[in-house]
Amino acid sequence: MRLMKHACLSLLLAGLYTGSHAQQQEVVIKGTVIGDTRGYNRMDLYSRYPDRYDSLKIVHNTFTITYSFEAPYRQLFASQYDMEVKDGYAPQGILIDKPGTYNIIARIDSNGTHYSATNGDAQQVFAAFSADQDKASDAAAKTIMQKYGADVFAKREPNPAAEADLTSLTNAATSRLVKQYVGKNPGSYAAAIILQRNSGAVDGKTLGSLYQRLTPAIKSLREAKDVATEISARKLSTVGSTPADFTLKNGDEQPVKLSAFRGKYLLIDFWASWCGPCRAAFPHMRELYAKYKDKNFEILSISTDRDKAAWLKAMKEENNPWPQAHDGQGTVSKKQFNVQLLPTLYLISPEGKIIAQKPDEAAIDKKLAAIFGI
After folding, report:
1. d(CA 218, CA 187)
2. What distance in Å separates the CA atoms of residue 361 and residue 373, rounded to the nearest whole number?
3. How do residues 26-40 score in pLDDT, each as one tens digit?
4. Whole-model pTM?
5. pLDDT tens per residue across span 105-126
6. Which domains does the chain have, with CATH numbers?
């Protein structure tokens, strides 16, 4: 009888432990909506890693859902209210760094719905960083308006000098904040997110140093691995370096090799079907092609579209007369050329070396005119 009691007690404890352990591997999201939804009571939840989508009904200004937890990720929220009343939305994210309950506040104001979390260690770090970054951006904009006039951002005609100064000020402030927050929180999921999302504002040496400060657990996460890939790609894509040969497929599934263009000046153009500025640049690129195609010059457009059908459709619509290739997995664009924004251009010499890294339209015009003496 005593053995039976001990056996039952052991099974009970085992059951409690198993149940507790299972419960610890769940993420419970409890949302509270503050403000008038005007009857638009749907909340959409997205995430990419893991890839999932859910649509919830808001009842009495609350919504709840439970997920299994596999690894830290960003939970994205978008409301029906914003879609119907504000004519669109940009999903906003909350960092989920471990199992547990996350209390989300969806606050509606005149600008739409804004999301915050009252708990979650990584989210609190990221929220503080974001708040400081917003303040820095506002301060930079104020400085630019003092220098160029209060209406500088309201004018129809762009002001390249003002835009360049604003970018410089914003990047400098962001770089300081990245060093501050990653330096203080190397073991936080927020550190990986902050580095990944703001790497463009940080010089290569600093980015490498901050990455090395991350704890092994954080380095193992997808976002930190993206940073490691960027550090490597920056080294491979600097002016003077020789990119490794690669092979992609064109629209007819035929191979396109970088080495096949050796002996010519090659302008590599990274683009995507959904990128407005990319497609807006094509008319001028067609002018360049017509001007230099008989002078040892070629263009190679590499699409980063995940959707191959969308690439093929856009390629047919543009009907550009130079070679095309598809890099849907980012093997070349991310790992070899550090493409962070679209469009991105690289000019390669006949010897296969990079001679211009991410030039703008004016810079590429000037560079080609100097090369070909026109």
Report:
1. 6
2. 18
3. 999 999 999 999 999
4. 0.79
5. 999 999 999 999 999 999 999 9
6. 22-119 (2.60.40), 122-236 (no CATH), 247-372 (3.40.30.10)
